[in-house]
Amino acid sequence: MFVRDEVLLEVSFAVACERLTQLTESGALIPASEDSYSRETGTLARVGAIGLSKLVRVQIRELARTEESAGIALRWEAAGPGGGLFPVLDADVMLTPAGEHVTLLSMAGSYRPPLGSLGQALDRAILHRVADATIRRFVAKVAARIGGGQSGGATETHAPNGAGSSPPAGEGPY
Number of structural domains, the chain? Predict the structure, then answer.
């Protein structure tokens, strides 16, 4: 399954890259990941998965940058009792210039629902909405940090293909 969200930041590409580098190097993306994941997976308690797992591993690859884009790869993975009931998310967080003082922050990733056909049915019923909400929350947190504050600098937009839907034909998830 594919998930995606994006936000326009009212900062230049160079400033956004520097701030994302600082967030990555300082380890600030790890608590943002944990908070986004735990807040949204908490909704699973209502469908019987209470206390089965917690996020214990966040992997982040350092910033790769070209003139036209910059990005990091990350992986979120649940572990502990019931960790296999949660999918592993592999995603790219990207920055691309969108104007002289505007940068697009996007996150696109994929996961495979666990538990075979039962997991696919649960994903269609509720888990995909949880995944979408988790991605939106993380992108909003990163946007607030790069944009300079809770409300300063970030303007939310919707993904052109709708957050969480499959990419348009011919496009990969990244």
Answer: 1
Helix axes 29-41, 128-147, angle to 10 degrees: 150
* pLDDT at position 39: 47
d(CA 93, CA 139): 9
Tell me if 95 sits within 8 A of 70, measured CB to CB.
yes
DSSP 29-87: HHHHHHHHHHHHHGGGGGGT-TTS-EEEEEEEPPPEE-SS-EEEEEEEEEESTTGGGSP
Range of the domain at 30: 2-157
109 with 89: CB under 8 angstroms?
yes
Question: How does pLDDT run along the chain (174 residues), one tens digit per residue?
Answer: 888 999 999 999 999 999 999 988 888 787 666 666 554 444 333 333 445 555 557 788 888 999 899 999 988 887 667 667 777 889 999 999 999 999 999 999 998 887 778 777 777 777 778 788 888 988 999 999 998 533 333 444 434 434 433 333 333 332
User: What tokens does 98 get?
Assistant: 């969108």
Q: Would you say the pTM of this structure is higher than 0.90?
A: no
Does residue 163 form part of some domain?
A: no
